[in-house]
Amino acid sequence: MKFTECIKRKKAEQNKPVEKIKKPKPFINFYKKKKERQTASVNIPPVPEEKLNKKSMKALSDYIKYLDKHDFSIKTVYTYQQDIMQWLKFIYHFQNNKPITNVGVAIGNFIDAEDLKVFLKYCLDHNNSPTRMNRRMTAISNIYAFMIKRGTYIGDTPTDEGKEYLSAVHRASKPEKPHDLNWEQVSRILKYVEKHPNQQYELLIKLAFSSLTDIRLLASLTFDDLELDDMCFYYETGDNRKNRKTTKILFGTEVKNMLIEWKKLRDENNVDTNRVFLHQVRYDAWNNANRFALMKWIEEIGMKSIQIPLNSTDLIEAGKVYLRHKGMNEKYIDILENYQSKEKDTNFYKRMANSTTTIENVLRKCIG
């Protein structure tokens, strides 16, 4: 009887309806549901692999096997595969699913230099950094070299023109000159970000203003870098061990509370990435915000608040205006600004060693 009851109990348990797993709540007051807010690195709609061009997929498959056979690292193989797959998906959606090979394909029916440049421009428009673009170009160049070696591509490849196009784009980016901002404009920027539904706008601006921090550092900032109790974070400068120095960046009580609140909201919504700033890939998906994504935010903030497209150097200038308004002496503002500068003279570190405590005391009085 005991055995029979046990069997019956097991069957009853198996026939129980499966409970649905509750999905985490979406971010609240984080982003409005707008298509134009999509700033993914490359936001290409998904495509089943069987729909992609068969000749292109055969070339990719053979290339991946070649990389595996020649002991390329798992990370390299995965990165190349993902970069090329994104390219093939783009070709499927926007370029009639043409093959990347040209043997046995009529002229005009395979990917050429103009097609490749269209893809590269698309990536640049979606916040791909120069480093990422160079990596994509390397992956594409390598698969073309492989196809030539295997005899599936004949003639000049489109990659030379693609590289020239990227070089021209990167050369065209001129050094940014700051706008001459006053306190009225800076206060309007602050009012705008305080009311904006994306709370990261306020966090980004107030963290940059209070510390005169470069956008490059803010884009790479993680929660592991933060010392919330001491209201600071650290980063290393210098190309080698002899020149390497750890720099302490301060922020105030208001920014500390905003960081704590932001971390709590992320934890509640099971966000596992460690970067402080995130940007929207889709309405329900998020990714690390790189420097180019943050630049889009800054430009938008400027246009919406003071009708000026702000750039990265404007953050420093606006921060100086902000600190002057808070009562900081011009002497200490200059020292704090030079503390962030890449171009430091040989005696700068010695002077800073004697000034850091004073700077910290002054800054704490200004920003809390």
Description:
Helix 3 (74-94) packs across helix 5 (130-150) and helix 7 (183-195) crosses helix 11 (291-306). The longest helix is centred in the N-terminal third of the chain and has 21 residues, at 74-94. The N and C termini lie far apart (75 Å). The protein has 368 residues and is mostly helical. Strands 1-2-3 form a 3-stranded antiparallel sheet. It has a two-stranded antiparallel sheet with strand order 4-5. Mean pLDDT is 78; it is low at 18-40 and 341-353. It is built from 14 helices and 5 strands. Helix content is 56%, strand content 6%. Strand 1 (226-227) and strand 2 form a beta hairpin. It is elongated and about 75 Å long. It has helices at residues 2-14, 54-69, 74-94, 113-125, 130-150, 159-172, 183-195, 199-211, 215-220, 253-268, 291-306, 312-325, 330-340, 348-367; strands at 226-227, 232-237, 245-250, 278-282, 285-288.
What order do the strands of the largest sheet run in, or round the barrel if closed? Answer: 1-2-3
Distance between the termini: 75 Å
Beta-strand percentage range? 5-15%
Number of helices: 14
* Largest beta-sheet details: 3 strands, antiparallel
Provide the gyration radius in Å. Answer: 26 Å
Overall mean confidence score, pLDDT: 78
Overall helicity: 55-70%
Helix and strand succession? HHHHHHHHHEEEHEEHHHH
Spell out the key features of this protein:
single chain, 368 residues, mainly alpha, three-stranded antiparallel β-sheet, two-stranded antiparallel sheet, 14 helices, 5 strands
